[in-house]
Amino acid sequence: MAVCVAIIGKDNSPKFFACLNPDEELSFQYKVLSSLDVVEEKLSAGNKAGSDLRELYLGMLYSLETHKIYGYVTNTKIKFIIIVDSTNMVLRDNEIRSMFRKIHSEYADIVSNPFYTPGEQICSKPFLNNIRNIMTGTV
């Protein structure tokens, strides 16, 4: 189960942020924004090494005492960040990948909406509910 999901634009501006506990939102925002440095580092290292550019999943960015932070980048440089409680030992790498794929699919659906202005923050309640369902594993 994820405790926080963030979608960050290609210019590193936050487009969407959801966490299960609103009291911890500020600390999660700090963790998400600090993880962007690791994302940029992994992307630049991947370009120099000539690695497979089709691999969107970056894996675990870093681990803290209480949380693990995972990253995913689309071909258009939109970044998805998931924060997972580190006490959750049942969540495996393939389940994290699956969560990212579902979030990516939801994101593609919302930006395909003709009423969505590209580059704006996502403020859709159905989108928020779908992301929360993915976070809790009820999808």
UniProtKB/TrEMBL annotation:
One of its GO terms (cellular component) is perinuclear region of cytoplasm. Keywords: ER-Golgi transport, Transport. The keyword Cell inner membrane does not apply. SUPFAM superfamilies: SNARE-like. GO terms for biological process: endoplasmic reticulum to Golgi vesicle-mediated transport. It comes from Brassicogethes aeneus (Rape pollen beetle). It comes from the Eukaryota. Belongs to the TRAPP small subunits family. Sedlin subfamily. It is found in: Cytoplasm, Perinuclear region. Its main location: cytoplasm. Pfam families: Sedlin_N. This is Trafficking protein particle complex subunit 2-like protein. PANTHER family: TRAFFICKING PROTEIN PARTICLE COMPLEX SUBUNIT 2.
